[in-house]
Amino acid sequence: MDGHRADRAELPAPRHDAGPLRPAPYPWAGAAASSRGEPSITVRRYDPARYLQGLVASAWRQAADRGQAVYIQGDWPGIAVYPRSLTAVVYGGEDSLRPYAGTEDLPLRAGLVFSREPEYDLNHPGMVPLDVLLWKLALGASRGRLPLDTPLDTPCALWEWPNFTRLIVTPGAMSVAALWARQVCTLSETISLLRLPAEDVFVFYSAAVAVDLVHPELPSRPAPLRSSAQPQPQPVDVPSPRRGLLRKLFDRLRPTDSPSSDTTPSSHP
């Protein structure tokens, strides 16, 4: 990647219990309006490890553990991840990953090249913050589905207001974010209170979890809810609270072993 000696590592095989689904690009287009009444919630699930979302997250974790950069190789535009600056370079631009974000089992054909002396160009046209990339890849992988082993009674609270000036705003995202910033709600309670299609709540949850914005309780010192019209950019090499949240993802990205089906009917509590 940068001309220095590199070594290779293969990703662990992803799980195979989520079932194949037709690939679709991001951003999430939104679900049809729910019918009146209180219908049961149909929960469709996906395994992030079987998509580019899980591939990039796993490569990032391995690179951070090594203190190196990593180049992700496969049948898609190349991706370089720089853990220290929490940035990535997508060769061809981040939009070039759209046809691949919803394609299953890409990690099986992936290889990683780790650089011992990582270098990066802040002015590279393909440079993107890592949270922005993971958010987009999660939208493309989820497509209205929940990650495996996520029950409807999962408590959700927002630890930081999403930077909607640079993140894709999915249908209902503002309402869900405002609710979870004020109080802890389960997924099923969120659907009922906001009267949103379940798929719209699920896709926002999937993206927010991918960048570690959702926790089971509110923070002891809530972050101020910044206006989405007033972005606060920071230099890449300056530490920030956002990076602290992202680094905590390492402990949340470990694969689980319990099986789950793709479609599970469930009722409101």
UniProtKB/TrEMBL annotation:
Residues 256-269 have a biased composition (Low complexity). Residues 1-19 have a biased composition (Basic and acidic residues). Residues 1-24, 221-243, 250-269 are annotated as: Disordered. This is Uncharacterized protein. It comes from Parafrankia irregularis.
